[in-house]
Design brief:
SH3 type barrels; alpha+beta; 2 helices; 3-stranded antiparallel β-sheet
């Protein structure tokens, strides 16, 4: 302990001597820097707007949906198929069918089967056979414990409409 005390005192004296140094050399260096001519700042680059693009293929099949072969398109036998534009649209018709998730079923006594659909906003909706869903005029044709069968009415590419079967499978 006696030898430690003189070391601590000596270190304190050395540190105090370092604090008493003059800043004349630092001031001289700062004055030399201030005397140099100042540089010019380059002007900001001019903003060039990108040309606008109008997407015109919103009626076509989504590139993220699997392609549907022409033999799966159900051509109506003798009846003209077209969507009912006068019908009030239902809540689930706001969403693409790919966004909707089939979460389960509710069986009512008496035979009515309801399906629970999670919409694109995270809410759960109850539907039954005959309700509409999806942006392509889809109508629920069948509800089982494992899937929901939907018939969509889509443009056939020749100024007409065809029915296309789709299904939602149970997801957890």
């Amino acid at each position: 302990m006696k030898m430690l005390r003189p070391l601590v005192v000596g270190a304190g004296i050395i540190l105090m001597a370092g604090c008493s140094a003059s800043f004349d050399d630092v001031r001289a260096q700062m004055d030399a820097i201030r005397q140099k001519p100042r540089g010019d700042v380059a002007p900001a680059p001019e903003f060039v707007p990108m040309p606008t693009f109008t997407y015109a293929a919103h009626q076509l099949r989504s590139p993220f949906a699997p392609p549907v072969s022409s033999d799966r398109l159900l051509l109506s036998s003798g009846k003209k198929v077209e969507p009912d534009f006068n019908r009030a649209s239902e809540y689930l018709e706001r969403f693409n069918l790919e966004v909707l998730r089939f979460r389960g079923t509710i069986n009512r006594p008496g035979g009515t089967v309801f399906a629970l659909i999670e919409d694109g906003d995270g809410g759960i909706q109850r539907v039954k056979v005959g309700n509409h869903m999806g942006k392509n005029h889809g109508k629920i044709a069948e509800i089982t414990a494992a899937q929901i069968g939907v018939i969509e009415i889509v443009p056939d590419g020749r100024d007409g409409w065809v029915e296309r079967p789709r299904s939602l499978t149970l997801s957890e």
